[in-house]
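# nightly structure sweep
# worker-07 picked up a monomer target from the shared queue
# config: single-sequence mode, recycle default, output format = structure tokens
# input follows
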Amino acid sequence: MANLTFIHPSRRNLIRALLLGAGLTPLMWHTIGTANSNSKVPIIPGFQEINGTVFLNGKTPILHQQVKPGDVVVTGNESSAIIIIGQHAYMMRENSQIEFYGEDFEQTAEGNVSGLIKIISGAVLSVFGKTSTKISTELATIGIRGTACYVEASLDKTYVCVCYGQADLSGALDKRHLETVSTTYHDAPRNIYAPGHPVRIEPALVINHRDAELRLLESLLNRKPLFDIGKTKPKDRY
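# output follows
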């Protein structure tokens, strides 16, 4: 069994549930149980998991309640939520506030959603289908090109790990393009700072997200992480 003692309790419980099959909703348990097979389970939009104190537009949501364009989701201390919107899944961390697709929202007939996600505070792990979504924080903009990424927003920096896929990283305040990263397995984590900081963007370590979480999110969408597809699969390091 993986050592989870160094992970925050609110997220440790989710990973332990994935590893042990405990505490999941029937849908999630069935999804994980069939994740490695060719069978598909229904994709149910909205809240898939609600842990602790979670608000949707100031009110307590219920399981499977949908998140619509312009909605704001807030998590409290030691709280978290998993949300599906279109072909995308989001795992919100504790003490986070996110506005989902409040601007430039578009949805195709196939259910692919694009637009702008604002991380007002906190952090989120996301997996995406086809999209032209952008994630913005006070300091950075991440242009998603069908990928998975983890973003933490704080006052002094934005942390971004493109777990697999490609993304354009830019400054939010000056719109300056900083870097385009293309990764297969957490290859290019970055810290992004405000204009005027001695360093605008720098390499960082992989922090606060796990491969088990990515597998969980992708399985809810009948997919696998890119690092689990193909003949060459890296050994889990995270």
